[in-house]
Amino acid sequence: MAQAVRERLKPGKLLIGGKTEEAISGKTFPVWEPALGEELAQVAEGGAADIDRAVRVAREAFDSGPWPKMAATDRGRILWRLADLIEQNADALAELECRNTGKTLFEARKGELPIIIDCFRYYAGWATKIHGETIPVRGPILNYTLREPVGVVGAIVPWNFPLLIATWKVAPALAAGCTCVLKPASQTPLTALRLGELALEAGLPPGALNVVPGPGTTAGTALVEHPMVDKIAFTGSTEVGREIMRRAAGTVKRVSLELGGKSPNIVLADADLEAATRGVLNGIFYNKGEVCSAGSRLLAAAPIKDELLARLKARAEAMTLGDPLDPKTRMGPQVSEEQMQKILRYVEVGKREGAELVTGGERHGKVGYFVKPTIFDRVEPSMTIAREEIFGPVLATITVADLDDAIAKANDTMYGLAAAVWTRDIKQAHRAARALRAGTVWINTYGIFDACSPFGGVKQSGFGRDMGQHALEQYTYVKSVWVDLS
């Protein structure tokens, strides 16, 4: 184990006001290494009192501290320096993420870290480009707008992409001049704590970014309900998103939600089957299926379905499961035993409701929380595995007659996070992109992200956007200024 990673596995503390501290209660909780099913580290368990401390520090840092008043150029320079520090520590961060989440080293180091680094650099550039406008109102009056930081942001992020999704929220919030309290998931707090340390090293003023791990039921609820928090940015399940909306209503704070998904991956009869096979595999088995935008529903045209399934089955069965730090490993373990058991229960429900198990559907090995890549055929749109988010490596295959049938079945869900269509017909592709009710539509590809491009959902997949220019709208508000010139 790398020395830098070993250092991170010492008991983790809360980061509040630029200082590492124990929880007021003195409690700690274990985080696990899912590949081994063993304890990885102990972390201070933040509660409501710790959230209150962190929010008050963030409030003071916003109201009286240097960060919101700092020249935008200087804020951008610090965010760029943070990106440099993440790049310099990328190998250790990737290993830490792998050990704590079970994702493969390739996914963490080659897939996620470049996006994280790019995201901080992207918003470093935006710091100097957040501005208002002059409006030609009637009369001898100067009217102009200011786009100002919304204030204290509470960011609550999930366990499947702990550092990546924290970056998607923290980077635009800081670029806008907000201060933040980041609550990582209890299962995966280690890289978030490290991000806070690197931010201080980059020159971020104490209190501008605070990190408080703890249970959602206590720390998360306290953050959502705190009257000094101006905005909540949440990524997680739709069920928890609904609860956050209810609790945030008490203080009428801003909320943005990136929630669950049951994304359709449509493969039409004229698709390039080789490319589609790779895209479907990546869409459902990347990060062992623990992806909110996973292509968990395969809507395959009848003429090519059998051949496509045969290709998918062969490649799924050839995937190497094992140590996520081994470069040869293709798929790692689920994040926890609880998540593994949840996935296996869904498999049993699928079989019981009449879906045909093509491959997988069981635990791999006896050590760690591995689930074999699983494919179902003969799935009806009404079945549980076609309607509920499993959040694991389980593909539900639904046969469709044509594009119209595919669009109707794709949209027959409460979710609307992402979708994809595979076809050589560019007219059909663009027609599908307009008709599909989803925040992101991929054409002849799957799972492509960039800091420049917005990501988020519609329907019960949430509202608001991460990344791109549109994310900044969530962390700023527009103030209208009137000057009488008569």
Model description:
The structure is a single chain. The chain has two domains: 3-259 and 460-482, Aldehyde Dehydrogenase, Chain A, domain 1, CATH 3.40.605; 264-450, Aldehyde Dehydrogenase, Chain A, domain 2, CATH 3.40.309. α9 links the parallel β10 and β11 (254-258). The chain has helices at residues 3-8, 48-63, 72-88, 90-101, 105-126, 162-176, 190-202, 216-225, 238-248, 273-285, 302-318, 337-352, 384-387, 403-410, 426-435, 468-471; strands at 14-16, 19-21, 28-33, 38-44, 134-135, 141-149, 152-156, 179-183, 209-211, 231-235, 254-258, 264-267, 297-301, 356-359, 374-377, 394-400, 418-422, 440-443, 462-463, 476-484. The strands form five sheets. Strands 14-15-16-13-12-17-18 form a seven-stranded mixed beta sheet, sandwiched between helices. It has 486 residues and is an alpha/beta fold. The longest helix has 22 residues, at 105-126. The protein is globular. The N and C termini lie far apart (72 Å). The mean pLDDT is 97. It is built from 16 helices and 20 strands.
